[in-house]
Amino acid sequence: ETGVTQSPTHLIKTRGQQVTLRCSSQSGHNTVSWYQQALGQGPQFIFQYYREEENGRGNFPPRFSGLQFPNYSSELNVNALELDDSALYLCASSPSEGRQETQYFGPGTRLLVL
Amino acid sequence: AQSVTQLGSHVSVSEGALVLLRCNYSSSVPPYLFWYVQYPNQGLQLLLKYTSAATLVKGINGFEAEFKKSETSFHLTKPSAHMSDAAEYFCAVSDLNQAGTALIFGKGTTLSVSS
């Protein structure tokens, strides 16, 4: 069984640019969540997709957007990058959207904004 | 608002010693609680979770945690530390203000194990 995969592993962008991060969910999982983990901090919830619809969003501005595809893979898009967007971006998938469900995390994409 | 507090950003133990990582939560209703571990340059791996069944929860790698409603705590323990336990540990609570599986994480505790 393949776990959650993310691409790319590392990325360097400059302020004002746009970036797209990708996530393939674990087989059989229909729910994908994205988190931002700044250095030395715990992950912060960005948003969640369930069966291709956004069904939850954290305290992040609209320049953070996403998609979920019919195969339940997902993208995170960030426009107008700011220096503070430098972080590890984690994708997690779960079998459904229930609160008790375990989220399975990918290895993350480390984004550096210069 | 819900929150998670992990007391002690860094805990150091000797190999074979007891590991105790503290987590206190704030929630208006009985929560779902999780402990995750993060090894360097990796994602998070679930150690264990509390979903209102038994208050003593056993997880992987010999870890366990006890849900104590009166103390609003969910501390993580392991009787005997191993060098391979050195990692970052995160306590998390299910976010009731969000639909779905959104979690609120603590700031993490770095566990160091010396020989």
Describe it.
With 114 residues, chain A is mainly beta. Chain A is built from no helices and eleven strands. Chain A has strands spanning 5-7, 10-13, 19-24, 31-37, 44-50, 53-57, 64-68, 74-78, 87-94, 104-105, 109-113. Chain B is built from no helices and twelve strands. Chain B starts with a strand and ends with a strand. Classes of the chains: A mainly beta (114), B mainly beta (115). The A-B interface holds A 4, 31, 33, 40-45, 48, 50, 55-58, 90, 92, 94, 97-108 and B 4, 32, 34, 36, 41-46, 49, 51, 90, 92, 94-96, 98-108.
List keywords for this structure.
heterodimer, A: 114 residues, mainly beta, seven-stranded mixed sheet, four-stranded antiparallel sheet, B: 115 residues, six-stranded mixed sheet, 0% helix, 50% strand
Strand residue percentage of chain B: over 45%
Secondary structure: number of strands of chain B = 12
Count helical runs of chain B. Answer: 0
Low-confidence stretches of chain B: none
Major sheet description of chain A: 7 strands, mixed
Helix count from the secondary structure assignment of chain A: 0
**In which range does the helix fraction of chain A lie?**
under 10%
| Percent of residues in β-strands of chain A | over 45%
Sheet/helix structural class of chain A: mainly beta
Coarse morphology of chain B: globular
The run of helices and strands of chain A is EEEEEEEEEEE
Number of strands of chain A: 11
Q: Which residues of chain A form runs of ≥5 with pLDDT under 50? A: none
Assign an overall shape of chain A. Answer: globular
Distance between the termini of chain A: 37 Å
User: Which oligomeric form is depicted?
Assistant: heterodimer
Main beta sheet of chain B, described?
6 strands, mixed
The overall average pLDDT of chain B, rounded, is: 92
> Helical content of chain B, roughly?
under 10%
Order of helices and strands of chain B: EEEEEEEEEEEE
